[in-house]
């Protein structure tokens, strides 16, 4: 069974790009509590983005997910999420996703700038870093966790705005169930 150990967030929504915010996940349960606007939803969105590569709904293609550079009077903000987890076979892995939001003359430009998987070489004890294209990383993380991307997106890290999908129209419901149970592979 895969478990999530820690997550570092900086430069994402209200999390300051200058400070590292580390969240430790306890076993068997971690409760995330706080007042409105404290960043509870952002923590779940960061977990989902780390594991699936999917931006949250209403993130406007990343523009409203990265800390706004204008808040600090800057033209660029860099954001980063580091997620440390144990794979389905118990191996420690760190997923690092880095982003950049730049204020251009008349618009903001969002860019995913780095996707890295970091492991420890069992023979030497040294860190081993593998850089990935985002699409490859989006497939690799669910495989390492031993769960499908559909389960991560629709069950484990389902966004509060999308949590009512079981009550939607039959065609949407069928598509979600096909994704979750991989029924399309057997047709």
UniProtKB/TrEMBL annotation:
Domain Rad50/SbcC-type AAA intervals: 6-183
Zinc is among the record's keywords: yes
An annotated Gene Ontology molecular function: ATP hydrolysis activity
Top-level lineage group: Eukaryota
Annotated Gene Ontology cellular component terms: condensed nuclear chromosome; Mre11 complex
Compartment(s): Chromosome; Nucleus
Region forming the signal peptide: none
UniProt-listed GO biological process terms: chromosome organization involved in meiotic cell cycle; double-strand break repair; telomere maintenance via recombination; telomere maintenance via telomerase
Cofactor(s) demanded: Zn(2+)
Entry keyword set: Chromosome, Metal-binding, Nucleus, Zinc
Catalysed reactions, as listed in the record: ATP + H2O = ADP + phosphate + H(+)
PANTHER family (UniProt xref): DNA REPAIR PROTEIN RAD50 (PTHR18867:SF12), RAD50 (PTHR18867)
The family this protein is said to belong to: Belongs to the SMC family. RAD50 subfamily.
Protein name as annotated: Rad50/SbcC-type AAA domain-containing protein
